[in-house]
Design brief:
The complex is a heterotetramer of chains A (about 260), B (about 325), C (about 290) and D (about 325). Chain A is α+β, with helices and mostly antiparallel strands and about 260 residues long. Chain A has five helices and eleven strands, in the order ββαββββαβαββαββα. In chain A, the strands form two sheets. Chain A has a five-stranded mixed sheet with strand order 3-4-5-7-6. In chain A, strands 9-8-10-11 form a four-stranded antiparallel sheet, sandwiched between helices. In chain A, β8 and β9 form a beta hairpin. In chain A, α2 packs across α3. The relative contact order of chain A is 0.15. With about 325 residues, chain B is of the alpha+beta class. Chain B has seven helices and 14 strands. The N and C termini of chain B lie far apart (about 50 Å). Chain D is built from five helices and 16 strands. In chain D, strands 1, 2, 3, 4, 5 and 6 form a six-stranded mixed sheet that branches. Chain D has a four-stranded antiparallel sheet with strand order 12-11-13-14, sandwiched between helices. A two-stranded antiparallel sheet of chain D has the order 7-10. Classes of the chains: A alpha+beta (about 260), B alpha+beta (about 325), C alpha+beta (about 290), D alpha+beta (about 325). At the A-D interface, β1, β2, α1, β3 and β5 of A face β3, β4, α3, β6 and β9 of D. Chain D: It comes from Gymnopilus junonius (Spectacular rustgill mushroom). Chain D: GO terms for molecular function: mRNA 3'-UTR AU-rich region binding. Chain D: This is Ribosomal RNA-processing protein 43.
Chain lengths: ~260, ~325, ~290, ~325
Amino acid sequence: MAQNVFDRRRTNGPEESTPFIYEEDISNPVRPQETCRKGRKPADIRPIFLQPGLINQAAGSAYIEMDRTKIACAIYGPRQSKNVAFHEKGRLNVEVKFAPYSCLTRRAPMRDAEDRSVAMALHQALLASVRLESFPKATIDIFITVIETDGMEGCVAAGSIAASTALAHAGIEVLGLVMSCSAAAMGSEVWLDPTDEESRLSNGTLVLSCMPALTTVTSVWQTGRMAPNQALSCMVASQNRCDDIHTIVAQALLLDNSKSNQENL
Amino acid sequence: MASTTSLSKAEKSYIQAGLLANPPTRGDGRSAQDFRTISLQTSVAPLANGSARVSIGRDPHDGSGGTEVLAATKLEVESVDLGSGSGGVNGGRVMCSVTCSPAAYPHLSSAALDDLQYDLTTILNSTLTHPSLHPKNLTILPGKKSWLLNLDLVVLVDSGNVFDALFLAARAALWDTKVPRTRSVEYKARKAGGGGEGGEKGDMEVDEEVVSGFDTRQIRHATDFELPDYWDEGEELDGRDRWPVCVTLNLVPPAHFLDATLEEEAAIPLRLLLMFSFDSDEPHIQGMRTMGNGELTVPQLGELLKEGEKYARQIWQSLNAKLKEEELGRIKERNKF
Amino acid sequence: MDIDDYEDFDSSGSRLTCPGESLTSSQAYMRGHGTYVDSEEVIASVAGTIERVNKLVTVRAIRSRYNPEVGDLVVGRITEVQPRRWKVDAHSRQDAVLMLSSVNLPGGVQRRKLESDELQMRGFFEEGDLLVAEVQAFFSDGAMSLHTRSLKYGKLRNGQLVAVPPILVRRLKSHFLTLPCGVDLILGLNGYIWVSKHVKASEQEGEEGFDAEAVYSNVNDEIDEATRTAISRVTHVIRVLTSHFIPLTDTLLLEAYEWTVEQETNVRDLFQQDFGDALVASITVGR
Amino acid sequence: MSSSTTSILPSLSPPQPPQTQHLEHLSQEEQDKLKASVFQRLHPKLYLEKYLEEEVRPDGRELGGWRGVFLNVGSISTAEGSALVRMGDTTVVCGVKAEIAEPELDREGEGFLVPNLDLPAMCSPKFKPGPPSEEAQVLSERLNQALLTSNVLPLSSLCIESGKAVWVLYMDATCINYDGNAFDATLLAMVAALRNTTLPQAKHDSETHQTLCSRSKPRVPLQLANSVPIATSFGIFDSKYVLADPTAFEEPLLDASISVVLGDGGEIISLEQLGSVLVEDVQDGNGEWVKRDVLKECIEAARARRDVLVKEVLNGK
């Protein structure tokens, strides 16, 4: 954004540059609201396109697209942990990187707090699903690149789905697939899978990650202001939607499996 | 978050078995819902706009042990960003940052300490800087100048339950915060005389004559502000009763307990953080997140929400009582002189 | 100032000194720990109490890490498993070392170690495990070597750890205490104290009956509520006493424990400052 | 609701199975296939040699054969312009973000073009998380040079108000999957992204020192020069074989690599050779030993390839 740190390891631009602004936005800073939902019903989520096995260099991978949100995920490992003390269980390492062009304003290509907070949320969502006790001393690296994002909540949800799919694609032992769905409290309504603008207009948002096969929840992440009952109905709605997403993901994985089986024959 | 204390399997199972016993017993004799002694002091940093120091479970005799957290707010004047790159926003901003004293985590490497600070900062930021809590009196000049409210927290000692301590300190410091009163000033004088704006140099000179000493940056607007009051007596933050308290439920399914010590935290894989506000008739959740390895079900979460609300309300009430007492004490103090 | 003025300072207990303070002439006395010699004078290098044994003058620091001596009983925590040895944190300046050859191996106390034992070291002790051991010797670099070659020593279970300043643990006839409330205490001279459920001596006996599985087990016994309460009560008593900087002895601990039971209080009341003060007052009476 | 939709990415074409039938010492049995992959790991050089002796490459291409190229533009709505290129399995996404800055004092009328390639840990096990690897630094610099030299986007066209405000175009390319020859793929992605880029109409206000854009006026595409730089790379293996468009498996085994960047008229914009190109003499039709001019061969092949790429990929849709 404002100040570009000179970094001899990259091609550098001018010392300082700023995002451009529209004349119209200064006089009328409130953004129009009619773009919300785009004809979606409150309980509708954006269409999911999921493709396991995009990155053939990795042990497992997945690419997910939910309308404008586009995320690629690769799994490396389990491989020997380096420079860490002995641990009976394996380690799960999640690294998230936002491409510089993934947001409305350009992100400097340095690691920032948002990368880490999304990585933290994904780690929490996935941790309980992976059978870490089955590979002591080893690390599973989950690398995620966000190509485009439309809302942090949707990014965490889509990232969780992609990462869990990629884990399954890599043949790593998990208790179940982790699905994730976000919800926003819009007045008294619950809007699932809110876009960036919708979350900003809402009172609060919630991301729920669960393993539909076991009907257990691995992570809840709520921000903003909600009545306890509202939070609960967000959770229920998200969990119900996760069951549907689970079907899609399972299908995508099976399809991919049968494809590779045919190749082997 | 990596636990810093290593425990043997026998110690872990001793702690877990105690918590699952009926009635649950804990290493220090507390029941599952007991907190350690909490002490709180506000206005501890004279140069900050608001501050508080919280300790949980300090030894009453020699003051050793216990989780200790310091919070302070500092207000800064910011230009509203119109492509200038300063990042200021119309209506003001709130920013939290958590620093951990290396002395609080002697086992952690500096990289791990950085990560911990990042994570704690993220959790506080995502709750406290949410628009639903935004104070309305951070505007100085609409569209031009606003306050940046920096909330800095320092973890001095961590003996467990650092989240509850952080949020207690944050709420107390924000409660304690005084926003300096400002008065906007308008300059029309030389505009007419300048004849067709008269070039910028003339205007800037005008500014230099009258600008308050508080802000040394150039202000090229026709309007400015000054601080009429002595800095100590500002107004309270708008909606200061909304700032939430946090209650951490440590889960040993089916049981849960509050205010874990470091050893207990190391023995328990899963925690649920709940942030509540009771400023209106209806209670509100201001944040919720699970931390650690473990699973729950939605009905379980519903139960925990109910329980958590009960605990949070108790914390809320005793904190409010303490804050009012502190405030009264200070008013008396001031009246003495 | 001369130390000779205090002929009977051994009996009177303590005289304090500060670093840099000259204690006595180096010609008449020998310098011990906590002192150094400069221009024929013995000078203190730590803050603490002066002690004299015949011609040897030492200063014992009030707060310091544990200073090990051969034969000391210590409680430690495994920090690392290395080839044929464990590293043990014993609250000292360096990690202590426990050699594979210094532990009792399954199938007989005096058996030679085998390669298979080396592969199973984590089966005996793993990172985080607590153990009680004796200081056996010192390496040339000053690190202490421990051994657990007695049935009294070995892995710790059924209880919780309290850490206190090492100086508060005095050398006693026995560091294994059993309180009548069914609580065992192991007072490590390094300041780590293990408070656990009492295990009958008969259950530990019999050199032949050495059961590796039991000795190296990580599973706790069944512990009833009364014992748990007693354990936390004892833990609290220790915390209160150490916060008042009172050295721990077997009789003192017993007295203090009985006093808290007499008061018929709940364990958590011990948090209160006045209660702690009352406890200290009652047991220091008549001393 | 959640039906699968079309994506910016094509469905995966299954990687071509190694064409084992060409090699007499490998049968078609599954076990042998396994052996082949073990052999590939243990003796990569020998493995490649065996294939090349049969005039075929492990992925079934001829020595001078190219991998299929797929291009998709404009799918990233947060960017001013974007493109995705798949060259075989190598996948590169490039997004262009525009910002406004003051020009340099000595170049008052020129904007900035800032190309960077990121090779994240995700795209290959050989990259680690953290700051740009050496390879990424080298590639970024080469891309920068190719774009500058070709003058595909005259920097003067990025001027809003001379001496006051100019556009900065940050061209960030991210490699999603690294299967060799990232340079060709990235340059193609960058050029395609530039052709896809539109900018809002901007005006500099000399009174407020602000540069403001208009939402209502239509966005304008960049004023690109006719000459479009296209890169084609080759690898020399065992002083004998010239391999076009090398894969990640072949790359580390090469003696040398040659990259040719050509402009529209077939003019050479950049020619780069890494390593020494010592190629053995060959026998001509009459059985006489003649010197082989590899560089010339490569340039010729690059010309032919460029035409195909421009016609079928860049202007294909």
